């Protein structure tokens, strides 16, 4: 077996990480997609949505509320302990997109 020279391997890994880092920039449009897919069964995630559970806050309410700043929202979404909210095992970039989307509703 031939060994891959360590330095070339490190370059490849660095490149991959850089690319992943770029695509991880928060994108509210992607956040809305994720919200419609994963959150809309319970939350009203967008103004046009007709149905959600009436016992959970809408994304507009969450966005406007002072309960969570961006960091607080990210922490909550990473691990919603002690809450009726399920843990959806979101990735960090999904969380960043969702937070960007939710916060975009804040005036
Ligand atoms: C199975 C239903 C369900 C799904 C799916 C769901 N949630 Fe929730 N969520 C809840 C409930 C219920 C609460 C209220 C929790 C409580 O009061 O303890 C909540 C609360 C929250 C809160 C905190 C609001 C506050 O003011 O305390 C945030 C933020 C939130 N959800 C975001 C999301 C996001 C983002 C998604 C999609 C990735 C999502 N939720 C998917 C049921 C759900």
Automatic annotation (TrEMBL):
Domain called Cytochrome c: residue spans: 26-106
Q: Which UniProt keywords apply?
A: Heme, Iron, Metal-binding, Signal
- Signal peptide, first to last residue: 1-25
Q: Which InterPro entries match?
A: Cyt_c-like_dom, Cyt_c-like_dom_sf
What is any Pfam family matched here? Answer: Cytochrom_C
Q: Which residues cross the membrane?
A: none
Designated name of the protein = C-type cytochrome
